[in-house]
């Protein structure tokens, strides 16, 4: 784990917010419904009567999903001002008059006696990009109210994690032209090797991508290649840390077979609760 203090500052991060801002223009009712279904799957129910905080709100689509599932209050926060603005715009358009707020702040500035506690603390694919994963998990987990849930997704560890860490550090600082070339190489290789492992066409895979990932393929490629800072974690290490925070596992969804991580590293999804 890189303990450099600079990594937790926005200036050292990939421009996630700009990518989400671009993607949000493509969000339609179908993608909102997919976000609702994905959140409901993790919750195991709805959010009626519950306070919900979206740590690292990105496009805001999951904050909107939480409102659609009956949350009495939704708080969306992100360190990136572009993500906060994108989320605010989405909620103003689709949830005007409902009880929500947006905040530009780092997970490391969260205080349970400030914004929290919450019935549901949600952070999907975010905390491994903060610059200090363990500290971020502790900060977010501390917001969980008694009887509440901590729902999060984190990159699982693969043999190529070290390579991807170096690649992301380069890509996030590269010129737009160099980034475009890298994306072209990545997509070309993915298209060429796809038939060796999967049935069906690569074009169908791209067309149905948002149903599985919550972002269209090409925005996700940019997000993956540029996702710096970057850390990954095993399920066992996650379990140990959650036990230290007084949280017990309710359910988890993860990869059952080992993978090299040639075209990226997926996420394990976790739901932990506080007694």
Describe the 3D structure.
This protein has eleven helices and seven strands. It has two domains: 5-157 and 231-274, 3-Layer(aba) Sandwich (Rossmann fold), CATH 3.40.50; 161-226, no CATH class. The relative contact order is 0.16. The mean pLDDT is 93. Helix 1 packs parallel to helix 4, helix 1 runs antiparallel to helix 10 (217-226) and helix 2 crosses helix 3. The protein has a seven-stranded mixed sheet with strand order 3-2-1-4-5-7-6, sandwiched between helices. The longest helix has 22 residues, at 176-197. Strand 2, helix 4 and strand 3 form a beta-alpha-beta unit. Helices cover 44% and strands 18% of the residues. By secondary structure, it is of the alpha/beta class.
Q: Percent range for helical residues?
A: 40-55%
CATH class of the largest domain: Alpha Beta
Distance between the termini: 30 Å
* CATH architecture classification name of the largest domain: 3-Layer(aba) Sandwich
Beta strand %: 15-25%
- Determine the number of helices (DSSP H or I, runs of at least 4 residues): 11
Structural Rg: 18 Å
The mean pLDDT is: 93
**How many beta-strand elements?**
7
- What general outline do the C-alpha atoms trace? globular
Low-confidence stretches: none
- What is the ordering of alpha helices and beta strands? HHEHEHEEHEHHHHHHEE
For this structure, the CATH topology of the largest domain is: Rossmann fold
Q: Major β-sheet, in short? A: 7 strands, mixed
Structural class: alpha/beta
- Domains (count): 2
Task: Please give the order of strands in the largest beta sheet.
Answer: 3-2-1-4-5-7-6
């Amino acid at each position: 784990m890189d303990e450099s203090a600079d990594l937790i500052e926005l200036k050292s991060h990939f421009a996630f917010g700009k990518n989400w801002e671009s993607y949000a223009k493509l969000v339609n009712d179908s993608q909102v419904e997919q976000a609702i279904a994905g959140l409901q799957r993790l919750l195991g129910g709805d959010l009626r009567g519950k306070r919900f905080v979206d740590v690292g709100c990105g496009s805001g689509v999951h904050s909107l999903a939480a409102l659609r599932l009956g949350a009495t209050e939704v708080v969306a926060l992100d360190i990136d001002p572009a993500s906060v603005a994108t989320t605010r715009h989405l909620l103003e358009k689709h949830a005007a008059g409902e009880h929500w707020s947006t905040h530009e702040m780092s997970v490391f500035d969260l205080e349970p006696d400030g914004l929290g506690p919450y019935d549901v603390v949600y952070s999907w694919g975010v905390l491994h990009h903060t610059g200090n994963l363990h500290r971020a998990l502790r900060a977010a987990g501390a917001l969980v109210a008694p009887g509440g849930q901590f729902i999060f997704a984190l990159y699982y560890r693969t043999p190529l994690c070290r390579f991807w860490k170096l690649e992301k550090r380069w890509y996030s600082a590269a010129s737009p032209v160099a980034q475009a070339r890298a994306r072209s190489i990545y997509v070309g290789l993915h298209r060429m090797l796809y038939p060796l492992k999967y049935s069906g066409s690569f074009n169908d895979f791209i067309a149905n991508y948002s149903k599985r990932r919550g972002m269209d393929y090409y925005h996700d490629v940019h997000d993956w290649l540029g996702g710096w800072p970057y850390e990954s974690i095993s399920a066992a290490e996650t379990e140990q840390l959650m036990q230290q925070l007084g949280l017990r596992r309710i359910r988890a969804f993860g990869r059952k077979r080992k993978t090299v991580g040639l075209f990226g590293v997926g996420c394990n999804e976790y739901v932990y609760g506080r007694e």
